TrEMBL record:
Protein name (record): UDP-N-acetylmuramate--L-alanine ligase
Transmembrane regions: 21-44
Occurrences of domain Mur ligase C-terminal (ranges): 335-463
Enzyme category, top tier: ligase
Pathway of action: Cell wall biogenesis; peptidoglycan biosynthesis
Catalyzed reactions: UDP-N-acetyl-alpha-D-muramate + L-alanine + ATP = UDP-N-acetyl-alpha-D-muramoyl-L-alanine + ADP + phosphate + H(+)
Known function: Cell wall formation.
Any single GO BP term: cell division
EC number: 6.3.2.8
């Protein structure tokens, strides 16, 4: 039985029993805000708190949410349920007050699972590529007229939002493995893009336990569901024999069920041919995103489209029309400086493999031009656990700017700061990192001392480094 053959009938919008007022702790986060926006459009009363105002929180306020700035116990007054995430401290006053008052406190993924309950869920998991793959899948379904609901960890450029409530039966959402909360989801189709050693603190500091966690996620599928797996990734390939669900694999590898051939980058576009073993057909695809990693992301979305019975031309058209997602190789504009001009990009890449893929795409897309990464490490634990991998990847740069670690609420760890990373990079003997501890000093240094004509600057990291990319270009306006 194909998952696409299931008849769900009319989408139910019935309210959760006794729950109407929902409070989000950290509502300005990209994942939390996406769920909040969908719930607003479902008719729930939404409130929430965050440390400071942002474009995201202001957008939610304009849609009717009540936003508090600062975390205070009395903010949760009147809430029927409080939604939190792993980024929120256990001693947060709103969480403590809710527990004292007997208000249910649930994780973000639990609320996502509730939204998914009455829909055909398509969940995308993996260490990297979740946001882009989710966005590509949502775009294909939207362009095909299926009007999906989507919940994404980044802003879909075409929609101008990270979330939308659709009238169709499909829900496309990211599944977050970082805190094991993806185990709460019950999708019909699950994608795993890759499995790298990250967030091991939640998996007994064991890569084997992490891989087992992904198998558990896939086994949340019903027996007639579908696992869509990237066979090019060693971690995913290692679990294939353990997955007891129908599956389709994708990749560039010859043994993939759906594979890409003749992959080539032309500027900021990828062109490739897709061979589908099931139908024994080949067809060309153009993708307006650079990098072989995005070819893999597109293959996953293609499989979903085919599984749902979409016309192949609709899939090809949807991929060709895809306009990208925020903070994924986003071009903010040109910067004039004393020695000429430079292109300014931003990318969310914060894991060594992500950074490697982004830099490779930049080098191929801008052959002959100097690539200038400005990297802000994200979390002390990640910097500690992956220090050697970061050093290996970043030591290949011609020039490199580092700034202080974005803590994401973590306490500093000895030997896991930017100075330690700089020493590890320097030990490879290929590049001398330029360390600018205060990120607010980076713009002036780039303008006055570092940049050459036609440099390509990429602000890298999952913290707040991206705002510099916007600001440095905005100053030109």
């Amino acid at each position: 039985m194909k998952a696409a053959d299931i008849h769900f009938g009319r989408i139910e919008r019935r309210q959760m029993r006794r729950v109407q007022n929902i409070f989000f702790v950290g509502i300005g986060g990209v994942g939390m805000s996406a769920i909040a926006e969908v719930l607003i459009n479902l008719g729930y009363q939404i409130s929430g708190s965050d440390q400071k105002a942002s474009a995201i929180s202001e957008k939610l306020a304009a849609q009717g949410a009540k936003i508090f700035y600062g975390h205070h116990a009395d903010n949760v007054e009147g809430a029927h349920v409080v939604v939190t995430s792993s980024a929120i401290a256990k001693d947060n006053p709103e969480v403590l007050c809710a527990r004292e008052l007997g208000i249910p406190v649930i994780r973000r993924a639990e609320m996502l699972a509730e939204i998914m309950r009455f829909r055909f869920g398509i969940a995308i998991a993996g260490t990297h590529g979740k946001t882009t793959t989710t966005s590509l899948t949502a775009s294909i379904l939207t362009d095909a007229g299926l009007d999906p609901t989507f919940i994404i960890g980044g802003v879909l450029t075409a929609a101008g939002s990270n979330a939308r409530l659709g009238e169709g039966q499909y829900l496309v959402a990211e599944a977050d493995e970082s805190d094991t909360s993806f185990w709460l989801l019950q999708p019909m189709i699950s994608i795993v893009t890759n499995i790298d050693a990250d967030h091991l603190e939640n998996y007994e500091h064991s890569y084997e336990v992490l891989k087992a966690g992904f198998v558990r996620f896939l086994h949340n599928l019903p027996f007639y569901g579908l696992a869509v797996l990237c066979i090019d990734d060693p971690g995913v390939r290692a679990i294939l024999s353990e997955v007891a669900r129908p599956m389709r694999t994708y990749g560039i590898s010859k043994d993939a069920d759906v594979r890409a051939l003749n992959v080539r980058q032309e500027g900021m576009q990828m062109r490739f041919d897709v061979i589908d073993d099931a139908s024994n057909t080949t067809f060309p695809v153009t993708l307006n995103m650079p990098g072989k990693h995005n070819v893999l992301n597109a293959l996953a979305a293609i499989i979903v489209g085919e599984e749902l019975g979409l016309d192949r031309e609709a899939i090809i058209s949807g991929l060709a029309a895809f306009r990208g997602v925020g903070r994924r190789f986003t071009h903010h504009g040109r910067l004039k400086h004393a020695r000429g001009e430079a292109d300014i990009f931003e990318d969310y890449g914060h894991h060594p493999n992500e950074i490697k893929a982004v830099l490779a795409a930049a080098q191929e897309g801008f052959a002959g031009r100097r690539i200038v990464p400005v990297f802000q490490p994200h979390r002390f634990t990640r910097t500690r656990d992956l220090l050697d991998d970061f050093a290996e990847v970043l030591s290949e740069c011609e020039v490199l700017v580092l700034t202080d670690v974005y803590s994401a609420g973590e306490a500093p760890i000895a030997g896991a700061d930017t100075k330690a990373l700089s020493r590890a990079i320097r030990a490879h003997g290929r590049v001398e990192p330029i360390v600018i501890a205060d990120k607010n000093d980076i713009t002036a240094y780039l303008r006055e001392h570092l940049l050459q004509d036609e440099d390509v600057v990429i602000f890298l990291g999952a913290g707040d480094i991206g705002r510099l990319a916007k600001e440095i270009v905005a100053e030109e306006a």
